[in-house]
Amino acid sequence: MLLFVGGPLDGRVQIREARHGDPLPTVTHVHLHGGPKVVHRYDLEPLTEGVGVYNLRPPVRRQARDESVAD
């Protein structure tokens, strides 16, 4: 059983059968809503055998380029 915490998938529970193999270490959720796409990444935190939590990864802050500075 996998639980998602945070973001648009908050509270979602996924039951994953063993035949599907181990869960992925990171899940990417892309939301298309008529505007720019919104991407959320969830990182797996295993708790016990067969149980884990996907926690929302904090957003990456990118430094804006200052176009006013001449090269």
Describe this structure in words.
With 71 residues, this protein is mostly beta strands. The protein is built from no helices and five strands. The chain has strands at residues 2-5, 13-14, 26-31, 38-48, 51-56. The protein has a five-stranded mixed β-sheet with strand order 2-1-5-4-3, with no helix packed on it. β1 (2-5) and β2 (13-14) form a beta hairpin. The protein is elongated and about 55 Å long.
Tell me the Rg in angstroms: 17 Å
Strand residues, percent: 35-45%
- H and E order: EEEEE
Based on secondary structure, the structural category is mainly beta
Low-confidence stretches are none
Q: Characterize the overall form.
A: elongated
Provide the spatial order of strands within the biggest beta sheet.
2-1-5-4-3
Summed over residues and divided by their number, the pLDDT gives a mean of 87
- Sheet of most strands: 5 strands, mixed
